[in-house]
């Protein structure tokens, strides 16, 4: 088994948090439509990072089971734009991260789906920390999202005959049904994200049983390849459904690739944190902390959350989340 370093794991978790919380910022300025073109390019950007990691780790083989984790990610990622358009980047991220936190923690803590059971030094503190983190998620569920103004796709400009073309697109109202659908999708996406590491947990457990020393980062290229293949299939099926006229905003291309590179780099740090902190500690932290970064962008840059009550509610949720994360982190330390 690879020797663990708490300091390296914590540093990796911090870098992953900052990148995960910021990776959707480049694309939020542009009209993304249904988000499938964006998620396809994002997976390409992630694979670029995967090739670099592949070279660093001396070209390990492709692990088909690790590609399953990429499949879970790609399906969830294909729904993120729909969620963010329905309930906002901050609220959507905070809600699906709450579900991810519970699922990822439970899989590792109780050894579900063939994973190795991981019990922290202070089991009671760990459980209390997870509960507090989930309580923080309850504060986010009722936040009101104010849809941001985005730059329309190039061909949409000619259709805006009744609007002033002064560079200030109209704010789009969101129906209650659309909000409900987006909220339900966060549960599904959270479940998928919470199981991204499950196939790799199983392989590492099998490796340790046979005396091997596989690490999470060894699987990163396979994970990225699985994500790209899945997103390609999704995009092809979508293009056929649209009769070869998919929604493609060319202005999304570079921002989407940048988002993918940021997300891929964050995932490398996430895998490193899992290796050195164990998923039972890393998952709750990295499932919730990026939402705090997302919230900062949503308030300060995109103005998605307004009003004193909503801001106070968000602050209360963030404080609860930070307290929970602290308890989870300390539960890993043996005093």
TrEMBL record:
It is a multi-pass membrane protein. It is found in: Membrane. Belongs to the TMEM144 family. Pfam families: TMEM144 (PF07857). GO terms for cellular component: membrane. InterPro entries: EmrE-like, Sugar_transport, TMEM144. SUPFAM superfamilies: Multidrug resistance efflux transporter EmrE. Its main location: membrane. The lineage of its organism: Eukaryota, Metazoa, Ecdysozoa, Nematoda, Chromadorea. The chain crosses the membrane at residues 6-25, 37-59, 65-87, 94-112, 124-143, 177-196, 216-240, 252-274, 280-302, 314-333. GO terms for molecular function: carbohydrate transmembrane transporter activity. This is Transmembrane protein 144 (inferred by orthology to a human protein). Keywords: Membrane, Transmembrane, Transmembrane helix.
